[in-house]
Amino acid sequence: MGATLDRATAALRGAGIDSPAREARLLLAHVLGESPGALMLAPRDTMVSVSRFDALLARRLRHEPMAHLLGSRGFWSLDLAVSPATLVPRADSETVIETLLALRPERGAVRRVLDLGTGTGCLLLAALAEYPSAWGLGVERAPQAAALARANARRNGLAGRSAVLCSDWGAALGERGRGGGFDVILANPPYIPSGDLSGLMAEVRHWEPRAALDGGADGLDAYRTILPLAMRLLAEEGVLLLEFGIGQAPALVAMLAAHGFDLLALRCDLGGIERVMAARRRLV
């Protein structure tokens, strides 16, 4: 085992992978069916399936995301299956849930949640995990991604309180109706400007779906669709939470105001970058 780890670490370092020793341990622990912590206590002469390990190592050396190799990624309190059909859930997106909890601390205060562009279902399912009386709808235009979100709901015991609709944003959604609407609308849409896609890290550029990344010339195309849709579907006292990209806050705040929303909160991610804003219908 020790020689395998050393060889993998050197290969990963040569490929420009960050934290090569850590990643080598993650791959080896996965092959052995152990936690990374347990691996640290295992004898260095532990037998390893070299062929299986090398197959995974070869994929990582091509910069395939580690989450694809492991088959899952932790997000909030959830364990989510991942695939090339969706973006890999990122810790920065947990800021959406943190912002929601700050605005709606009462766990019985949220009954209906809508997640636009649900992907793996990470935001929808994390919200449902925190609000036990809530029911949620995820909307996802890619059929494979929608199927993955449904599978993740089952995986985390939330299938009974959720549904996933395969639709292009709100094309299949009706009016909110009198006294209806969603208490919470979440969205982490594509927001990378088209011209910036070529500069993304290889793990993202080559392995994650372009449609989930490309936000058009200024990165804001999806919001132009989402904001009028949210105004139609949001409950009177509901809250809209949007994830967005670096430097996009001023333009997005102006867009919110133009569509009849008041800004409630602007929150930074773990790196101190403005990442999430919350809004509500303008008070008259």
Descriptive account of the structure:
This protein has 284 residues and is of the alpha/beta class. Helices cover 38% and strands 20% of the residues. It has 2 domains: 2-62; 73-281, Vaccinia Virus protein VP39 (Rossmann fold, 3-Layer(aba) Sandwich). The chain is built from 11 helices and 9 strands. Helix 1 packs across helix 2. It starts with a helix and ends with a strand. The relative contact order is 0.11.
Summarize the structure.
The chain has 284 residues and is α/β, with parallel strands linked by helices.
Order of helices and strands: HHHHHEEHEHEHEEHHEHEE
How many domains would you count in the coordinates?
2
* Mean pLDDT over all positions: 92
Strand content: 15-25%
- Low-pLDDT regions: none
Q: CATH superfamily of the largest domain, please? A: Vaccinia Virus protein VP39
* Topology, number of strands: 9
Multimeric organization: single chain
Q: Radius of gyration, Cα only, in angstroms?
A: 21 Å
Global structural class: alpha/beta
Q: Which fold name is given in CATH as the topology of the largest domain?
A: Rossmann fold
Residue share in helix? 25-40%
- What strand line-up does the widest sheet have? 5-4-3-6-7-9-8
* Largest β-sheet summary: 7 strands, mixed
The CATH architecture category of the largest domain equals 3-Layer(aba) Sandwich
Shape: globular
CATH class of the largest domain: Alpha Beta
Distance from N terminus to C terminus (CA atoms, Å) equals: 67 Å
Domain Methyltransferase small: 107-191
GO molecular function: nucleic acid binding; peptide chain release factor N(5)-glutamine methyltransferase activity
Binding site for substrate: 188-191
Function: Methylates the class 1 translation termination release factors RF1/PrfA and RF2/PrfB on the glutamine residue of the universally conserved GGQ motif.
